[in-house]
Amino acid sequence: MSETWVEKKEWGWVSSRLPKGYIWEVQWARREHKKGRAIGGMIMGVREELEAEEGEEEKREGVMMKKVKIGGTQWWRIIGVYVNKDIDRKLEELKEWIDDRERGVRVIVGGDFNARTGREGGEIWEDKDEGGERGVGSKKSKDSKVNADGKKLCGYLEEQGWGILNGNVKGDEEGEWTYTGGKGNSVIDYIIGNEETREKVEKMKVEGRVESDHHPITVWVSGGGIGGERRRKKFGEKRGERGNWTEEGGKAFIKNFGKGEKKERSMDEDWSYLKGKIKEAIRKTRKRGEKGEEKKRWWDEECREEKSKVRKELRR
């Protein structure tokens, strides 16, 4: 997450509201003057069950990086960027990671570049029949304007053999707006990568959220493998074993558990038997305890309809 405005004194409040099950890294927003709000700030979260390489993390002002294994087989270097009027320095800092052609590691960069690239900076192609001549493909974008920083970014990507995925992959074929402010819409938030990275990106979507003037970008990369199976099993079991632990549910559990069978077993067999009875009692209790009951939540159908209207108005 880029441009969070989160200062050190606010981290306790913010961290308590972030999703559980992640290891969070933070870079504080800073104040240029005593008056006014802090600027910048970044947050990066990695799921606890993902394998991350120790020591493979870095935080510089406006740049955060973490190396993780996705799908249990493929190493990825994930780099988050926030550019605030210093694009030359940021691109120079990115260069060492992009230049590092570590075998078997894919690199993907995303964030707020504050640069408008119009329909330039698309996929890089190389003509092997013509002596390796390189060219830059175009991309679709709802923002046709190119500013000075946009030209610098496109020139840098061409030099590195990288390209912008916005408006160039499944899910974002038209190059959706990524920023909606008081002065209008623009595309200034990007996902970038080389040809190897692009091959692994299944789709990308600019989300329709209304909590920020920047719209979050979600990217799906192909992974699968044992990591995904292990994660589904872990969370599936945890959800399935949640029971109804009200006073009424507790009484129902005792009744459903019943009396155990008196039988000679080994310690392992006894534990398996006991665990099975507990799970079965919880399942029955949960089923009976939840039947016909519905918790009243403040986020109801009316809230969903109103938020849908706001999203439509924002797009319009």
TrEMBL record:
Residues 77-217 form the Endonuclease/exonuclease/phosphatase domain. Residues 120-145 are annotated as: Disordered. Gene3D superfamilies: Endonuclease/exonuclease/phosphatase. It comes from the Eukaryota. InterPro entries: Endo/exonu/phosph_ase_sf, Endo/exonuclease/phosphatase. GO terms for molecular function: catalytic activity. Transmembrane segments: none annotated. It holds the Pfam family Exo_endo_phos_2. This is Endonuclease/exonuclease/phosphatase domain-containing protein. It comes from Dufourea novaeangliae. The lineage of its organism: Eukaryota, Metazoa, Ecdysozoa, Arthropoda, Hexapoda.
